[in-house]
Amino acid sequence: MTSSADRWAELALHPVRIRILRSVAGARRTTRDLVNALPDVPQATLYRHVAALVAGGLLDVVEERKVRGTVERVYALPAHGAALGPTELADASAEDHARWFTAFVSSLLAEFSRYLSRDRIDLVADGVGYQQVVLHLSDEEFAEFAAELAGVIAPRLANRPGPDRVARLLATVLMPVDPAPGSDSAATTAPPPTAGPVPGPPGDADQS
């Protein structure tokens, strides 16, 4: 028997559908917005994936507008979002999480490859950065950090595309890490391990 998590994974973990859901997250997007956000995807292919997401309940049609004799749909994520809920996540196996995380990482690789294929790239001017840092936080401190981070990001998710705005992808990964052998993780004061050509927030650039 196919579980709801399996059905979700089959529907959502497609490279184009991941980009569609990311484009709609936190905002309402018209069909035209999606076409502009994913210019490398043929329109017929894009419409097919949008229709599949709507049929599967991961996208809602929240408005229909008449534009030059045709009907333009406006899409948004459903109230419950497009991600799995706590119950499905708790019931998922390690193999499920490995598969989902692989899809997540693969989508980042694809986005970064699209960035690198531009005629001109300048990581400093473009604000591109990727790094890893280790934060030593109690549960209370972590909850405070998560709330502060959400408070910074959430209001900006509603920003609509504009001529003075650059679409930027911010990807986050949070997980506990094992302390270095022989060290006291609560007292470690050495600089956190970092990776990447320039300082910046954990994530990559160029959101569709």
CATH topology of the domain at 4-118: Arc Repressor Mutant, subunit A
CATH superfamily of the domain at 4-118: Winged helix-like DNA-binding domain superfamily/Winged helix DNA-binding domain
Shape annotation:
globular
The SSE order reads HHEHHEEHHHH
**What's the CATH architecture of the domain at 4-118?**
Orthogonal Bundle
Q: Give the termini distance in whole angstroms.
A: 35 Å
**Average pLDDT, to the nearest integer?**
78
Q: Helix proportion of residues, in percent?
A: 40-55%
The CATH C-level class name of the domain at 4-118: Mainly Alpha
Please work out how many helical segments DSSP would assign: 8
Q: Gist?
A:
The protein has 8 helices and 3 strands; from the N terminus they run H-H-E-H-H-E-E-H-H-H-H. It is about 40% helix and about 10% strand.
Key structural traits:
single chain, 208 residues, mainly alpha, Arc Repressor Mutant, subunit A, three-stranded antiparallel beta sheet, 8 helices, disordered C terminus
Structure overview:
By secondary structure, the chain is mainly alpha-helical. It has a domain at 4-118: Arc Repressor Mutant, subunit A. The chain is 42% helix and 8% strand. The chain contains eight helices and three strands; from the N terminus they run ααβααββαααα. It has a three-stranded antiparallel beta sheet. The longest helix has 23 residues, at 94-116. The two termini are 35 Å apart.
Topology overview:
Layout: H1 4-12, H2 15-24, E1 29-30, H3 31-37, H4 43-55, E2 60-67, E3 70-76, H5 86-91, H6 94-116, H7 123-126, H8 139-153
Antiparallel strand pairs: 1-3, 2-3
InterPro entries: ArsR-like_HTH, HTH_ArsR_DNA-bd_dom, WH-like_DNA-bd_sf, WH_DNA-bd_sf
Region (Disordered): 180-208
Biased composition (Low complexity): 180-189
